[in-house]
Design brief:
Elements lengths: L22 E7 L6 H10 L5 H14 L1 E8 H17 L5 E6 L2
Antiparallel strand pairs: 1-2, 1-3
Helix pairs in contact: 1-2
């Protein structure tokens, strides 16, 4: 007996469609009760901004009413938002943070 190996050719091509996961903006909303220093601390610790970047973004939030802390996958945006809001509430600050789907 001899082993015969036949080449198999497939005429069909399988089209693969890969969609990038949706990205979400984490948006800080300005208020009159949350101290600027606390916002800077959150931006540097939770969102990993540099001190300078955090200070600039905090001033944008303060003067324009809101600012984007970062853009992430849903799970990461949700985790960072929850962490920042929980820490703010523990300190007694009413900081509002929302997530918006990136367009």
């Amino acid at each position: 007996m001899s082993d015969v190996i036949e080449d198999v050719q497939i005429d069909e091509k399988i089209e693969q469609i890969v969609e990038m996961p949706k990205r979400f903006k984490v948006v800080f909303i300005n208020d009159d009760a949350t101290p600027i220093d606390w916002v800077i601390e959150l931006l540097t610790t939770v969102f990993k901004h540099s001190q300078l970047s955090a200070e600039k973004l905090t001033m944008t939030i303060h003067t324009e009413g809101s600012g984007i802390a970062g853009v992430y996958s849903f799970e990461i945006a949700e985790t960072k938002t929850t962490e920042a809001v929980t820490a703010s509430r523990a300190k007694g600050f009413p900081l509002q943070i929302k997530m918006e789907e990136e367009e």
